[in-house]
Design a protein that fits this description.
There is one protein chain. The protein contains nine helices and two strands. It is an all-alpha fold. It has a two-stranded antiparallel sheet. A hairpin with a 2-residue loop joins strand 1 and strand 2. Helix 3 crosses helix 4 and helix 8 crosses helix 9. About 8% of the residues have low confidence.
Length: 179
């Protein structure tokens, strides 16, 4: 008698999934997607985009099910690393429009190894004042116009544009100092 997929280990589910067992995939999804979604949402601050990241991640996992070589123990690490990389790619593409990325490209080097420049950039963005951070996020993550941001935050368009200008200057200066 076959065990219920819910009672199997991740390694057993991965093996079943590789053999085409859809229930095994669905069980892995139910088991891991909520935590990965929370992780992605925490980085992106955008639930819809975080859901897209998780959907894409599990779709890629399913499509590569026959070639993937993971043990049950490494599945969590794989999922979180893949989600982190997907989020950082989203952030990198969003910030390309406001930053001098040539000044930021060397930010990746650290004393004990390398860290993705986008990750360091995300930290720099989070160090902006709360108001400026919110305005930058609304502009470049939610793709709102300066006018829409002004209406949402009850500010003048000029104030919004000044915050965006100062954010660009702050971030570019920080990138130059770190390179």
């Amino acid at each position: 008698m076959k065990k219920s997929p819910d009672r199997l280990t991740d390694a057993q589910l991965l093996a079943r999934m590789a053999d085409g067992d859809r229930q095994a995939f669905e069980c892995l999804y139910r088991r891991h997607a909520p935590r990965v979604l929370g992780f992605a949402r925490g980085m992106l601050k955008d639930h819809a985009r975080a859901e897209d990241v998780v959907q894409d991640l599990f779709l890629k996992l399913y499509l590569s099910r026959r070639n993937i070589k993971l043990s049950g123990d490494s599945l969590d690490a794989y999922l979180y690393r893949a989600a982190r990389n997907a989020v950082l790619n989203i952030l990198r593409s969003k910030w390309t429009g406001i930053l001098d990325l040539d000044a930021c490209r060397d930010m990746a080097m650290e004393e004990k190894g390398t860290t993705d420049a986008a990750e360091r950039l995300a930290a720099a963005i989070s160090s902006l004042s709360p108001r400026r951070n919110e305005i930058v996020r609304l502009k470049y993550v939610e793709d709102l116009s300066s006018k829409d941001i002004a209406l949402r935050l009850n500010l003048s368009v000029r104030t919004v544009e000044k915050h965006l200008q100062l954010a660009r200057e702050d971030l570019n200066e920080r990138c130059r100092k770190l390179s």
